[in-house]
User: Fold this.
Amino acid sequence: MKEKIILLAHGSSDLNWSDTFVHLTRPACEQNKNVQLAFMELSSPSLELCVKRAAKEGYQKVTVLPLFLAKGKHLKKDVPGMLESYASTYGVATQLLDPIGEHPALADALLRIIEETVQDKE
Amino acid sequence: MKEKIILLAHGSSDLNWSDTFVHLTRPACEQNKNVQLAFMELSSPSLELCVKRAAKEGYQKVTVLPLFLAKGKHLKKDVPGMLESYASTYGVATQLLDPIGEHPALADALLRIIEETVQDKE
Assistant:
């Protein structure tokens, strides 16, 4: 099954804010052409546009990995509702993963950042 | 110089939300007794309480590592203002680091998470 992986950030009217996500996701998007960044609101491209395009390009499934640290109202309610609606409108299966902050890789990354912070001072 | 490292999350009235940060930061806090989790608002302990305690415990400096993926208004304006005020009230030096989302360790963690996501499907 042809599957698209969408890295979903919240979005902001502040261009510097969204640029951070472009930078953060660049290695992943360059490494895998099925991976793409999208935004829930305020920034482009929108989640809807990306799901629509994926369907048009023949992807049968869209898996959404939230670039959020924890699950709040957006991930518990808003995004599931959006995905349900887009799945029916564009005829693709959708799946919402847990936010990256719940993955052990994040705790490991945090240890590395703190280690560098402390070393810089020594 | 005795330095406290505060891992600063936004905070939420949703207990599940703040629990994710307790879990995310546990390895770091257990590994280094100078590392502690605090919240900007809505959750406990507050940033102010942690700075106050650090000063009382003899720390001369408080370094804040934001558990945010990007810099928005909170990190550009609110938190610097809070730290300036607490530094003067409690007599400690303060430093605000870049948010974790700007660190290369986060892009690496993201690659690892995506790799696992793709492998799980194969």
